[in-house]
Amino acid sequence: MARTLCKCVFVFLVLALSGLVFLLHNIHSVENLTYRNISTLYQSKLHPAQLAATLSTSYHNHTCAQLGEKLSREDELEQRALLDYIDWPGPPPRSRPTTLPYSSDPTRSHFTILPKGGKKWYVGDQLEVLVQMQDFHGRRKQYGGDFLLARLHSPELGAGVAGRVLDHQNGLYSVSLPLLWSGPAQVEVTLVHPSEAVAVLQRLRRERSDRVFFQSLFRLGSLSETTLCNMCLPLDEYPLCNYTDLHTGEPWYCYKPKMLSCDTRVNHAKGGYLKRLISNKESLLFQSGVNLKVQVQASGADRITVLPPRRDELGVQSIKPESVQLVTSGYYYQNSWRPLDGANMHQFNDSSAISQCLKNKVINMFGDSTVRQWFEYLIASLPELKQLNLHSPKNVGPFMAVDSTHNILVKYRCHGPPIRFSNVSASELRYISNELDLLSGGPDTVVVLSIWAHFSTFPVEVYIRRLRHIRRALVRLLNREPGTVVVIRSANLQVLDQNVSLYNSDWFSLQLDEVLKSMFSRLDVLLVDAWQMSLAHHLPHALHPHPPIIKNMVDLVLSYICPESRKS
């Protein structure tokens, strides 16, 4: 009997101990469930919609505005001034609900060309237009914040110019349009987003910088894992790989693989886009053909005829360009861009002219795919410029092309993360400021930069920080070699639908564009105003502008590189 009891006690103790071990093991597993899910999401066969839903609950509202190096007092003041400069008015806090019926309706809104004292318009004058926004009930809006675009154009003359929109914050908007050619001119006003939609975009930028997510592959021998990466991963919840740049302090993190070390990272890639970011009611504010990039009609005439410039007492035509330059950086006439900074622009219509301009030069292009277009344009335009096979992924780079006859070297490299390319080798992830510090510079060195499209989902502070590092590197480059030619390409408009708007709206691009122009305004560089060049042109908006616009951009750059060509 005693022997049987001892056996039962022993069995009971073994079972109890086993149960305790099992419980402790599962508690540890539950505590690490989220991390393991995140680390192995890409190894599973989840549908993209399921993946996005899982990610949405995994990390949320992690700000990245305060990451990076601590700001100096000077940098802090500049950042505050920039944020104030781009501050956007919106619906009053206690206004009616943000629903479609109370939002701006472009079909019920209208614009009016304001009459002029002399009843005639001349080249050099300013055309004034008043826009009145109304809601879907036909009632005038009592507050501002609508995102409007305006241009003056003449299809007959191949002419166009961007207008300036002033928000009176009471439902009324003034548009100023410079008159730069004689002949017919037509006013066009477009509602890109109603103010209620802009408020949604502001919230997304503030709260959901994770709405585009990234991934990296880690591999060692036959073992591989893929984990999530971003600038804004929580720093204190799960093990991370810290890839913060040692020179600039630019932050970047990946979730640490379960079985591999951080130094086994192979690549960087765009993971995808989170869905279901807005409510059904909010989605009604982003409807193509209803309130998303829809033209506002005129209440009267939308066309005028512009007369040649007035003549002074001596019979000389007089134009005051200083007021025009406050509004626009240039305009199209006969489908050619004409800058208003006092410089002439030469048309490089044959390959020999381009080759002579770039002879003995090294052109270094850094940035996103909008400047890669320029690389591709040169390859297509110059028969003797041959692209070398660097075995780089298509549309990713790095790329290099050589014209041995004219001693021309053209290079392109994408900027560092965040970048939404499909597959960038980890060894090829470079920050522009670090690359600039490696350049010797000189009069035969051309630097071309474009960096904006991949920052639209992040707080503006992130973009300011990146541009600050680039600006410092450019100052160092120009100090050691003042003859270096530097060109900076700004943001441009693109085609929008609801999905694109939530990640890459023109409103995000406009905010970044204003910051870029302000931060580089005092440097000795050429700023290619891609925003106005895409707005003023008659072709549809596109993330990668159409060939005629690209040609005008490249011609502007070549005219800056080779000012002597302007005399020919």
TrEMBL record:
InterPro entries: Ig_E-set (IPR014756), NXPE4_C (IPR057106), NXPH/NXPE (IPR026845). GO terms for biological process: nervous system development. SUPFAM superfamilies: E set domains. It holds the Pfam family NXPE4_C. Residues 337-562 form the NXPE C-terminal domain. PANTHER family: NXPE FAMILY MEMBER, NXPE FAMILY MEMBER 3. Belongs to the NXPE family. This is NXPE C-terminal domain-containing protein.
